[in-house]
């Protein structure tokens, strides 16, 4: 108990000016604070909301000053440098004041990069498929016996990993929000999967701003580095036409053969990067669906740039298990399959989910709309969806979009009601697909909680 008292005394001591301020006390913020403290910075963490108890304990254990439930502006505006949580938008009033004062603002991945030493980074971004592709690359690395860490937007702080358990290789999922505040961050291998309209509320509703944000992943790369990208994505290829790059470019495609990179022809994936060539039947891929053929090609190329042998790539691609909340099979109840795709927080993700379904479905949609254009999935809904169950507080937009496409649209406001309603609407040999196309904050803390509640409700049937 004495140690705790001493730590609380430290927290209530007079605030010192300057130093490194960390704004936001989530996974990335706490990780940044721990790394900053370890490297000798005078660190102070400030969160406008409440901190998780586990994060508080980590801060206390590391003797890091913090506050929650509000910000001490005088302290923050006297900082030498600020690490801003990716969740805090530029329109935030405190951020505006920080920018007006000209205080340098960086992201947690920039701080991690600063202290990663000689370690290599494979960084993956894109509007959809980031988590799956990042996890697949990490799985290939583990199968090949490489000492790697899985970090970034996927759940474990890059900065905390560098502080507590540094590795020679980091496989990092990177969001546009994390890229917005990089300065020198430079991955050895960058992967850009696709770009579709998402998070436009954070980018002044200008698609070009979001595109530019995604492309920041390559802005510091040199001729020693690799850039893996989707040649079938028109947004990416149009942007590339405007750029002069001095990076090793490795495209992947399902529409054309490439000299270097990867392509699929006659149901065979061909990888050509180093001396070694890899060919593999798409029917051996653990991940199913056209979008996952893109993800698997990207992962295979990344593995080849790391010198991983083709036998190991083949083995890993065959043995990979898909992620929780991403097209996750939950159970079959009286002939009805239940699939949890709670991670689908935009329309494009739901398009991918419907595209990979091979049976009629009852689709559970809804949540916090991020400016969705549902016409994008209209044809697939018409072709594969027999009923829609809305799970959200405001479902007017969904009703308006699909009233002439689907006969049955039902409103619910909990996972339990949504699952029960969907089960009653589905017939044997069909599926119930949770792929909401929306954020989850109206009824849940995050998409993970939404997915867990869905699975609990299925088990109660």
From TrEMBL:
Residues 325-438 form the Mur ligase C-terminal domain. ATP binds at residues 126-132. One of its GO terms (molecular function) is ATP binding. It comes from the Bacteria. It is found in: Cytoplasm. GO terms for cellular component: cytoplasm. Its main location: cytoplasm. The keyword ATP-binding applies. Pathway: Cell wall biogenesis; peptidoglycan biosynthesis. It catalyses: UDP-N-acetyl-alpha-D-muramoyl-L-alanine + D-glutamate + ATP = UDP-N-acetyl-alpha-D-muramoyl-L-alanyl-D-glutamate + ADP + phosphate + H(+). Its EC number is 6.3.2.9. Gene3D superfamilies: Mur ligase, C-terminal domain (3.90.190.20), Mur-like, catalytic domain (3.40.1190.10), NAD(P)-binding Rossmann-like Domain (3.40.50.720). Keywords: ATP-binding, Cell cycle, Cell division, Cell shape, Cell wall biogenesis/degradation, Cytoplasm, Ligase, Nucleotide-binding, Peptidoglycan synthesis. One of its GO terms (biological process) is peptidoglycan biosynthetic process. Residues 124-302 form the Mur ligase central domain. InterPro entries: Mur-like_cat_sf, Mur_ligase_C, Mur_ligase_C_dom_sf, Mur_ligase_cen, MurD. PANTHER family: UDP-N-ACETYLMURAMOYLALANINE--D-GLUTAMATE LIGASE. Cell wall formation. Catalyzes the addition of glutamate to the nucleotide precursor UDP-N-acetylmuramoyl-L-alanine (UMA). NCBIfam families: murD (TIGR01087). HAMAP family: MurD. Belongs to the MurCDEF family. This is UDP-N-acetylmuramoylalanine--D-glutamate ligase. It comes from Segetibacter aerophilus.
């Amino acid at each position: 108990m004495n140690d705790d008292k001493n730590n609380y005394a430290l927290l209530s001591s007079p605030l010192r000016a300057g130093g490194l301020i960390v704004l936001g006390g989530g996974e990335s913020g706490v990780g940044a604070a721990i790394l900053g403290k370890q490297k000798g910075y005078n660190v102070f963490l400030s969160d406008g909301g409440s901190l998780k108890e586990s994060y508080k304990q980590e801060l206390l254990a590391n003797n890091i000053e913090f506050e929650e439930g509000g910000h001490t502006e005088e302290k923050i505006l006297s900082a030498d440098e600020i690490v801003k949580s990716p969740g805090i938008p530029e329109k935030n009033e405190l951020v505006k004041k920080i920018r007006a004062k000209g205080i340098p603002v960086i992201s947690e991945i920039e701080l991690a990069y600063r202290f990663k030493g000689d370690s290599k980074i494979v960084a993956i971004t894109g509007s959809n498929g980031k988590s799956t592709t990042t996890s697949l690359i990490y799985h290939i690395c583990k199968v090949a016996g490489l000492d790697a860490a899985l970090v970034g937007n996927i759940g474990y702080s890059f900065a905390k990993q560098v502080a507590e358990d540094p590795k020679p290789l980091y496989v990092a999922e990177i969001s546009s929000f994390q890229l917005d505040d990089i300065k020198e961050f430079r991955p050895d291998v960058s992967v850009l999967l696709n770009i579709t309209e998402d998070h436009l509320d954070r980018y002044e509703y200008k698609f070009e701003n979001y595109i530019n944000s995604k492309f920041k992943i390559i802005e510091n790369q040199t001729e020693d580095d690799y850039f893996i990208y989707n040649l079938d994505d028109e947004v990416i290829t149009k942007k590339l036409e405007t750029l002069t790059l001095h990076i090793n470019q490795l495209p992947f495609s399902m529409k054309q053969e490439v000299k270097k990179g990867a392509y699929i022809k006659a149901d065979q994936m061909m990888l050509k990067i180093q001396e070694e060539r890899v060919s593999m039947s798409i029917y051996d891929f653990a991940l199913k669906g056209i979008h996952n053929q893109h993800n698997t090609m990207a992962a295979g190329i990344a593995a080849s740039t790391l010198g991983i042998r083709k036998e190991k790539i083949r083995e890993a691609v065959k043995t990979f298990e898909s992620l929780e909340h991403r097209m996750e099979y939950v159970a079959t109840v009286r002939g009805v399959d239940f699939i949890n795709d709670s991670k689908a927080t935009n329309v494009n993700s739901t398009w991918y989910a419907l595209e990979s379904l091979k049976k009629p479905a009852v689709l559970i949609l809804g949540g916090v709309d991020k400016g969705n254009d549902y016409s994008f999935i209209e044809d697939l809904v018409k072709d594969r969806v027999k009923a829609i169950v809305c799970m959200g507080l405001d479902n007017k937009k969904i009703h308006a979009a699909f009233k002439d496409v689907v006969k049955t649209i039902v409103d619910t406001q909990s996972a339990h009601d949504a699952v029960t309603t969907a089960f009653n609407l589905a017939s044997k040999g069909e599926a119930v697909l949770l792929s909401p196309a929306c954020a989850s904050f109206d009824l849940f803390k995050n998409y993970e909680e939404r997915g867990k509640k869905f699975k609990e409700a299925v088990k109660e049937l």
